[in-house]
Design brief:
33% of the residues lie in helices and 23% in strands. It contains five helices and eight strands; from the N terminus they run H-H-E-E-E-E-E-H-E-E-E-H-H. The longest helix is centred in the first third of the chain and has 34 residues. The relative contact order is 0.08.
């Protein structure tokens, strides 16, 4: 009785007489890559068109401008700011932007939908100061003065001006909290206290 089943030997014969499988796969992958690029370009163009049509506040963010960023998943904490930043625009390709964190220098690639314009007065506001305050972290701007016995490091304290904050937020910090910071080392050099610089600096 004859059957129409396709046996493994038939498959082997077909491979022997046809184009090598690797070559066929390479051609398919190359075609897929071309199709994906075309689809991305079309989608990006449609995105920009729809945003411009439906959002009266739609804008194009130029390179080096400052923006606020909203994570696509939304804030993880109800007390966290909805719009983070500001960030600086460093690159863009259609509706995809690369922005840089002004505090730690890290990059984020995101869709234009997740960005908002950052409005500020460049004469009065430094975007880095705002970014630092919004992160809720403290960075040393400068060290202003010191007190304590130079011969006993444990008694030494230094008055710190924090980046993005005024004189009313200055604090006195113990030597051990600042020992390995660049600002303290520069301060010690300027004030002829090199003996207090930790080894390795």
């Amino acid at each position: 009785m004859q059957t129409n089943l396709y046996s493994p030997t038939d498959s082997a014969k077909a491979i022997e007489t046809s184009t090598p499988v690797r070559e066929v796969l390479d051609k398919m992958i190359a075609r897929q890559s071309i199709l994906l690029k075309a689809a991305q370009k079309t989608q990006s163009s449609l995105d920009s068109h729809r945003i411009a049509q439906h959002d009266p506040n739609y804008t194009d963010y130029p390179i080096n401008s400052y923006v606020l960023y909203t994570a696509p998943t939304g804030p993880s904490d109800k007390l966290e700011l909805k719009h983070r930043g500001p960030y600086q625009v460093v690159n863009k390709l259609d509706s995809i932007y690369t922005i840089q964190d002004l505090v730690d220098g890290k990059f984020i690639t995101t869709h234009i939908n997740n960005l908002r314009e950052f409005h500020y007065d460049p004469e009065r506001t430094n975007p880095i100061d705002i970014a630092v305050q919004n992160r809720g972290e403290f960075f040393i701007d400068s060290i202003l003065e010191h007190r304590g016995d130079h011969q006993r490091r444990s008694t030494m304290e230094f008055k710190v001006r924090w980046r993005g904050y005024g004189p009313e937020h200055d604090t006195w910090e113990p030597y051990k909290n600042l020992a390995h910071t660049e600002q303290l080392i520069l301060y010690l050099i300027r004030n002829r206290m090199r003996s207090l610089i930790p080894k390795g600096h």
